[in-house]
């Protein structure tokens, strides 16, 4: 049996790897080919193309990246036509995946969509296309099932896959010891995203905000968990009034006792969840990380910025009241959101200081985040999705 899988970005790579593991445990002789990242490749995916070729966000950004996207589409279409896999598994990334689905449908290949496109947020007309093209769909957010049902499409809520993934492997004290951070002083995490475009827009502003926070609160420490796919040298290309200090080959005790005149941002790789769990609060790009922080119970301020053209288009099309998944799941403004023009060092530092100095507010937010975590369902999402995919394959072969 052959299954073709497509995930277009880092979060999809993570969830795709879990799904592949779940499918392999049930169908051990299956071959997996497709577009994904290092985690999916480690899980057993034969890469047709790396997902890094597709990892862009925003209309203007996609236009500027159109050649590799078209190349990926043409190679995928040719492979599907030649190999005719038993199943096509699509993970989020709708603009690309729906085009692939249209070609696969003509070839008679069964289509399983894992992690729905966010059509509830914008361009709801795409539900008709999903209903026409997709044979089975698993959704991971609690409000999605009712949304699709209201549009005449039956889907299965399998719970959120992050519930099986997100956990800190060691305590705050151990993390601080490894990174040279003082456990007695506040820790603010900076999480500017996993894409280079996000980092280029958000990290310089976050770094300047850290400098402003440090002027008022020199006891505050900053940590930046960098996505595994990124090189820390990308941060050094920005001219900011901070010192970037990788924690490798660092005398942890001397760093812990150091009282600099400007903030040191300690960059860690491979310890994202530990960094978030150890932080008193994080300043995070809107995206999957907001749910990761909710699961870990870490208070947060959410921010995001895209090109002016992309933002203009988004304002015209987006139909939801919040930018962050945490607030959408909560159904209210649980965490502060600072978006687009408001993304300035002054505004971000103000939000950080306000939350940092409000102990009761952070405790209340932690309690509310626990409710968000509970709303995400039960663990075992990938296993339930794998069972749905196998049912689809079995039903198709029986037919």
The oligomeric state of the chains shown is single chain
> How much is the average pLDDT?
87
Supply the number of structural domains.
2
Helix-residue proportion: 40-55%
How many runs of DSSP E, i.e. beta strands? 14
Strand order of the largest sheet: 3-2-1-4-5-6-7
CATH class of the largest domain: Alpha Beta
- CATH architectural name of the largest domain: 3-Layer(aba) Sandwich
Q: Ends: how far apart? A: 17 Å
Main β sheet profile: 7 strands, parallel
Low-confidence stretches: 247-259
Q: Give the C-alpha Rg.
A: 22 Å
Number of distinct helices: 18
The helix-and-strand class reads alpha/beta
Strand content: 15-25%
Q: Considering the protein shown, what is the CATH homologous superfamily of the largest domain?
A: Glycogen Phosphorylase B
Shape verdict: globular
CATH topology of the largest domain: Rossmann fold
